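Note to self: the last two entries modelled the partners one at a time, which told us nothing about the interface. This time every component goes in together.
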Amino acid sequence: MSSSTTTTTPANVSHTMPPASADLATTWAFLEEGVDHIMTKLQTGVSYSKYMSLYTVAYNYCTSSRMHNTTTDTVGQGSRTGANLMGSDLYNNLIRYFITHLKLLKDQSDSLQDEALLRYYASEWDRYTTGANYINRLFTYLNRHWVKRERDEGRKGVYPVYTLALVQWKSNFFLHVQSKHTKLAGAILRLIERQRNGETIDQGLVKKVVDSFVSLGLDESDINKASLDVYREHLETPFLDATEKYYEQESEAFLAESSVSDYLKKAEERLKEEEDRVDRYLNTDTRKQLVSKCEHVLIRQHSDLMWESFQSLLDFDKDEDLQRMYALLSRIPEGLEPLRKKFEEHVKKAGLAAVAKLLGEGSEGADSLDPKAYVDALLEVHRKNSETVTRSFRGEAGFVASLDKACREFVNRNSATGSSTTKSPELLAKHADMLLRKNNKMAEEEDLEGALNRVMVLFKYIEDKDVFQTFYATKLSKRLIHGVSASDESEASMISKLKEACGFEYTNKLQRMFTDMSLSKDLTDQFKERMANHEDMDINFSIMVLGTNFWPLSAPNNDFIIPPEILPTYDRFSKYYQTKHSGRKLTWLWNYSKNELRTNYLNQKYILMTSSYQMSVLLQYNKHDTLSLEELIAATAISKDILSQVLTLLVKAKVLINEETDQYDLNPNFKSKKIRVNLNQPIKAEVKAESSEVLKTVDEDRKYVIQATIVRIMKARKTMKNQPLIQEVISQISQRFAPKIPDIKKAIDTLLEKEYIERVDGTRDTFAYVA
Amino acid sequence: MSKASKDALLSEFCSITGASPKDAKRYLDKHQRRLDAAIDAYYQEGGSKTTVASTSKLNALFEKYKDPTGDEISIDGTIQLCQDLKVDPENVVLLAVAYELKSPRVGEWNKKGWVEGWSRLGCDTVDEMKDTLTRLRAKLGSDSTYFHKVYDHTFGFARTEGQRSLAIDTALAFWDLLLPTGLTGGALKHDLTGEDVDMDGEESSGWTNEHTQWWFQFLAEKGGKGVSKDTWMMLFDFIRSIDSQFLTHDAEAAWPSAIDDFVFWARSVGKVPTPEAT
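The predicted structure of the combined assembly is written out below.
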């Protein structure tokens, strides 16, 4: 190294580089001057050669002892001890330098307060750390060897030079300032408070000081690891406390003179501000605690009030406020639960009120409730609240569940249903029937589809889905038989919706009904073709052959004499069908058939559209002009009470005249504006019987469903206690209907009696499957 | 020593040791009617010296009462037997005898059941049978387990062949025999094992003859076609577990519907208070 050969003049000791062999005093004097220059007036610059000479001197001093000792025998031990001494000499002198340097800062800071203090602190910090960085590099050799070895040997309190500088800053300056009523942190907190109060502050300044807190943290076990302990102790903790106090006061004061709606806005803003604050000048580590502290003070402590005001926000449809309240309360654990409960109650009440209002409007009462009005009222409540869930509660699952629960409640139990669980499914099925009829007012296809979708919305909530199913099947059969269905597409669409909701089994029968219809159409065509060459086939005939198991139709229980006019057709078809499907039994449902009769006893030719009973009555007048009730009964074999209703209709339509008791004459002067006269109107008794008939079917079906379910469960489980068995039955069946416990117990009774199951010996409440 | 106290001693000996009355009498006579000494001796000798009832004697007795045209003792024989035993044919003890002798139906005793049953009871003479009847009557009234066995047997015994359930009238008649016996003797007393005893005074008494009358009234009004085996069997448990006000009745527990219906009926006609809905 060239410098080692240069000689220096002693007079110039501080400016001239000392030789490698120079003693500590000389060496340090040279170094200290350089260090101080770097630390205090770096801005004036340090020349490369100056820097290099400083570096070299530090290096030389550290290695000089090694050179002295190379001649001795105790190489290893001696050199170590020597290096130790050399290193610690420099190290201790550095410490002394830092202490002196910081003493100056300390003194200057004593008179400073608040922002002035922060400014002073920040600028000194900048200068100090920049300088320390250079110094650190200057003493690289010391760091790499002496410091490293000392640390490796486990000595505490020895750090690389930069870290040493920070440690010294902390103990000789930082702690000193903080010790005076936490002057430093206090200044920061006061600035933050001013900002919270709406003033503009120098955020860069705050950030710089806060960053210094972070830098001062030291992890003794691994100095390369960042440690937040200083930051936490001196800033974060007091900051969080101050935050809590600030918002406690602010929120109390705010609520004392403002509405909850305004408070929601305020709290929302404050939360956002605090999160921004972390981004701007705090350590990200503080975010979680700060947020949770704010949530606690701003939300949790006022949650009771929010819960209380929730109802009025709902009542007045304050969507934005609801949104805010939701967003705020969703931030605290369990914050939403009371809202969900209240919301459920709210929806339920709205549903019940809507139905009560409907009943109040119509004077007819629950019995003659218009299905459409009923369904629309329920749907409106659902729509409105469903929108609230989506808009204000972001479609959150808990609120959806509350909505569903409430809807399930008021759809199945309201003032229209009373205690009957079958009323709602009945009305819904009737509504669906009206939608799917030809003459409904839904002109557009899309409207119909939309209406059907809305039916499904309520269907989802119906508990007694089997009741709906039975009513729907009955109505569908009527639509198909009478050819009044709006369209095959819509029918198919509705069935596929039901299938999607309840599975294949649920719609199986419905689908079979369509199959029967199309098969019947083919059958009619084939039969016509076959009979084409029969000259007396002047009767236009079409047939529907419908599977007994799939159609909710019942054969008439009264006799019926087939009029001779149609007998040949009847016979021919029966024979034809037997040859086609031998062994199948045909039951003729006269009560569902209809006919068209052409008149030729009047000047004007009319076509009378009739039921079979009407037809058989009218055909009697081909041979007679007047007949008594007795004669008509004898000729048709229709029971007296049905026949009188048939006759009443015919008399009302003025086809027949009833001038004397039980005497019916053909009206020779019959007149009608229309050529096609529809006489076929349902008989009242039939309409009324329909509902109770359907419900009876449902009841019978249920008994078997419950029994079958129990058997299935018991077969799988072998033995089961009473309570779990009942629960399991309920859970398995509840898709179709809500089984009542006494009904389940009756089914258990029956199965015990039939010995499908038995009580396990020695127990009162355990059943076993009997294989 | 009176006849009654002698009998009591005898029956106590039997119930402790399970020995036949014949053996009991032998041991008690031998030990001057000191029960402890007699029982000691009985166990010392291992109870082995029990006198075995004579099968041939029992066979002969069976032949005596047997229907001359059949293989079994039938109604006439039963009436004759009752006369000889000096017991009313409608005495409840005959249900215990029917159980012991495995009689399948009223007034029907087969030979196997007769011989084996009486042998097990240790008697082969009409006099011994009379003693045994006294003992069985006491046991039936007081011993819950035994009462339960006889009660269960009675359902099949009383049932018309080929029927699943018991006609209401028949059921009522047999309950009328059995229930008062069990209630008086204690066999049907309220079984509090495993239950929270939280009742006071009179009301803790549970089922009484009055309740039996309610049950009969209920069945007469709403009983329907008949009493199922399950209802018959479970009534025993119900009587032993229910409180007199039916407050502890749980309609969701595993009681047969008939019993649930009975409780609701009792409430609806005001025999017991209707609990407030919860």
